[in-house]
Amino acid sequence: MKKYLVFLILTCNYSFAQEVNVPINKQSIDGTEILKHTWKASWIAHPTASQLEYGVFLFRKSFHLNKVPKNFIVYVSADNRYKLYVNGQYITNGPARGDFLNWRYESIDIVNYLRPGKNILASEVINFGYDRPLAQNTFQTAFILQVHDSTYDELNTGRYGWKVKQNNAYQPLAVSMNMVKGFYAAGPCDSVIAKLYPWGWNTSEFEDSDWDTPKIAFADKAKQISGVGRGYIYGAGLHLVPRTIPLLEQKKERFSEVVRSNYSGELRDIFISGNKTLIKSNTKVSFLLDQKYLTIGYPQLLVSKGNGSKIKITYTEALWDSIGNKGNRNIIEGKEVHGYYDVIYPDGGNNRLFEPLWLRTFRYVKIDIETGNEELLINDYYNVFTAYPFIQKAKFQTDDPRLTQIWDVAWRTARLCASETYFDCPYYEQLQYIGDTRIQALISLYVTGDDRLMRNAIELFDQSRISDGLTLSRYPSYYPQIIPSYSLMWVNMIHDYYMYRGDSLFISNFTQGITDILSWFEKRIDPKTGMLGKLDWWNFSDWTPDFQMGIPDGVDDGNSAFISLQYVYALQNAARIFEYLGQSYYNNKYSKLAGTIKEAVFHNCYDKTSGLIAETPDKIRFSVHTSLFAILTNTIEEKNQPELMNRIFTNNKIIQPTIYFKFYLFRCLQKTGMGDMYLDNLGAWYNMLNQGLTTFAEKDVDPRSDCHAWSASPLFDFLHLVAGIQPSSPGFKTVLIAPNFGKLNIINAKFPHPKGDIIIHLVKDYKNKIIGYIELPEDLTGTFKYGNAEIHLNGSKQNIDL
Prior knowledge:
Layout: E1 4-5, E2 19-20, H1 24-27, E3 44-45, E4 55-65, E5 73-79, E6 81-86, E7 89-94, E8 103-109, E9 117-127, E10 142-147, E11 163-166, E12 170-173, H2 177-180, E13 189-193, E14 215-216, E15 240-242, E16 249-253, E17 257-261, E18 277-279, E19 284-305, E20 310-316, E21 340-345, E22 352-354, E23 360-370, E24 376-387, E25 395-398, H3 401-416, H4 434-447, H5 452-463, H6 484-500, H7 504-507, H8 511-522, H9 561-580, H10 584-605, E26 606-607, E27 612-613, H11 624-632, H12 641-650, H13 662-671, H14 683-690, H15 714-722, E28 725-727, E29 734-737, E30 746-753, E31 756-764, E32 770-775, E33 781-786, E34 789-793, E35 797-801
Parallel strand pairs: 8-15, 13-21, 29-33
Antiparallel strand pairs: 1-2, 3-14, 4-9, 4-11, 5-8, 5-10, 6-7, 6-9, 12-13, 16-24, 17-19, 18-24, 19-22, 19-23, 19-24, 20-21, 20-23, 25-30, 26-27, 28-29, 30-31, 31-32, 32-35, 33-34
């Protein structure tokens, strides 16, 4: 059983660095059982404090056990967030993000933390208020907990004995775009005044006689409807559904180095080893810590004494020079720290542990300390890395060590961009965008075999759909944003799931959403050209500078070839889905409509002189993007597609894609049989490595974010394109292995297929002869292709000699 660090605010007599056995991946219990019963618990809230504004609230309930039962399952949720404690020990936090009609609750077995005699259930509930993360929905501050075993119904919230107190130690620190040098949407930071903190509030020894009795929240709403099959609490403002993803991974990680300081003591013992460090009274000191790699989590600062001190902790992905450039991320000389920050005011007590209320992302951390008349003792400082518990099951090795470096950095990028939802970036936004998420989901399938976060994303985007059928571009989010082409990408995500998992029961849940989206676009076909006409909303496609605000030509005035072909691509994928589900009407309809629009785009936009599809019928501008979708949709005949690919590689006057859209460039290399060129097109990733990035950035030139999910695409490409592992039938029932060596001589790969691992070991000699072996799971068959040769593969280990 793995050990995970307890990270809570310690009381004076609580032993620092105590670790407890928290089986993160097994702790969350299947919550569907409660869906068969009535929720007996009620949402509760502070009796007088605002339930809409910022606030940190502490709930506790004491109870007695004659003996500890075999299990003790509780169902728990809150608005916005909660942290659950039992007898002073941290258990978990949540709820997983959702919306009003799909508000998650966790199902937790807390039996390992109970004891005979007096016990304490406690929860810290946070409402981030006006400055909350853009991904954080809220109705009003409240908490709910229900026990599974009715023997202990007295513990349900709404029953007598629960106490509550507002923790006035916390105030929000809003984060400005000027502070972080870019658009920011991930919530406020914290100001913590320790003398106002009720230390030990979550332990049985704490005296709570002056605490308030909570009120029943949402009392102005209709009564709850009992016995509802899906377990919703109707009329309560928030409708509860079980968490569908595992609890997050949490592990302790120490800082690597203090790289800058005006402190006169020995630096190597500060922060790195956990040794205590004394800061004298009436002193100002500063420390710059370098983790050496970007990370995410809840940094923990443990201090003693220091009454009258002020501690400011600033977090940043990189340092900035005097003209606002990041440059090489490893170079700190002449650079400054810009970033969001927490401020802590110690109270002089012993073993005070401070942690942020929400995640922090950083490579560099600057700690500025100003002591008063009392010296400050720093007992320790470390991070609790927190992310979705992805496990790397795939392997990829070649004779080019640079690819291993790209793999490792891309994997860290993918991990930091996956939490309770996929993140576009962990520092700036933490929003789940469909364009990013499609790539992230494919990476998850290929590297981990874990499809739960992908399923969660597909469901959330379906739940985001507005009245006219389109999805929101990002979700969860309380600020609606609509990118119509991202709704098409959602259709493509479902097609991806159909190819890799083939779960018809799951896929059939989204047929209405697919038809609504495709109908929205169908209604906007220009009868004169047969292409899409003028489109509403923000039609973002790529951040290339040649697309104003990311919008390709022709959208505002109508007849964009690029958006029209994206529609064709989604129609084609939808037709395959409906064929798989046995719905011939939509299969035939979408196949025919796709063909009609393809012909219209070719007729109106094909330019004979350049051999390219223009952006609009006036044939003035051209982009790589439109050519790529002309290939993906077969708007250009397959026999002519390699020639088109050569044109876009040799014509630098056409609009070029950014690192995001190179994902589709590489799909076209693969489709046209030109996959051997892939490894020669990784310059953007090599440049980022040369600049000292430890995750891959939003853009390869002047990025805002140093960690952006779509740039982790080489993880997928190395396995899907280089190793050539692809599904050749829906549900991955058969496999195609068509490697692209390029300049490589060795490809070793392992891929987590649902039926077991696919293992590849192939060597190419100087005559381009391929030898080695491929091992498939017992019940899987497929085809190996290389050049003009094909070999049938059985569910076993087979030698390759071509």
